[in-house]
Amino acid sequence: QVTLIESGGGVVEAGGSLRLSCTASAGTFSAYAVGWFRQAPGKEREFVAAISWSSGSIYYEDSVKGRFTISRDNAKSTGFLDMNSLKPEDSAVYYCAARSLMDYDSSHDYKDPGYDYWGQGTQVTVTS
C-alpha cells in the first residue's frame, strides 16, 4: 500500500514555472514507477509524464516535451514534475500515481492510467 500526497500547485502566469512534488507517506516508494496525469474540466484524465523506479526510463506526452521534467529522489520518497514555459492549456488538476513496473516494461504500460495508487491531486492554473 502506497499513500501519495501532491503539493506545489497554484496560479501562475503564462510562461511561468511550477514544481509539483509527490511524496509517499507509506509503502516502499523506490519499488514503484511514478506517473503524472492531469485532468481539465470536461476532459478525460491524460498522461503527462512517467519515470521508472530507477529513473532509467522516462516518458513524456508530446505537448510537454522540452517544457516539463520528471524526476525522483528515492531517498526522500518523493517524485517531482518541473513545469516550465507554462501555457493556459496546461491548466488542470495534476495527479501523481504509482505502479509496479520495471525499466523494460513498455511505454504503453507507463502511459496507461491503470496505476495502482493515486494522490488526491493538486490544481494548476495558468493565466494568459
SSE series: EEEEEEEEEHEE
Ends apart, CA distance between termini: 40 Å
Please report the total strand number as a whole number.
Answer: 11
Average pLDDT taken over every residue: 96
Specify the biggest β-sheet: 7 strands, mixed
Low-confidence runs of at least 5 consecutive residues: none
Oligomer: single chain
What is the helix fraction of residues, given as a range? under 10%
Number of helices: 1
Structural class by secondary-structure content: mainly beta
Please compute the radius of gyration using only Cα atoms.
Answer: 13 Å
Overall shape: globular
- The percentage of residues in β strands lies in over 45%
Describe the protein in words:
- The protein is mostly beta strands and 128 residues long.
- It has one helix and eleven strands; from the N terminus they run βββββββββαββ.
- Strands 2, 4, 5, 6, 9, 10 and 11 form a seven-stranded mixed beta sheet that branches.
- A hairpin with a 4-residue loop joins strand 7 (68-73) and strand 8 (78-83).
- The radius of gyration is 13 Å and the shape is globular.
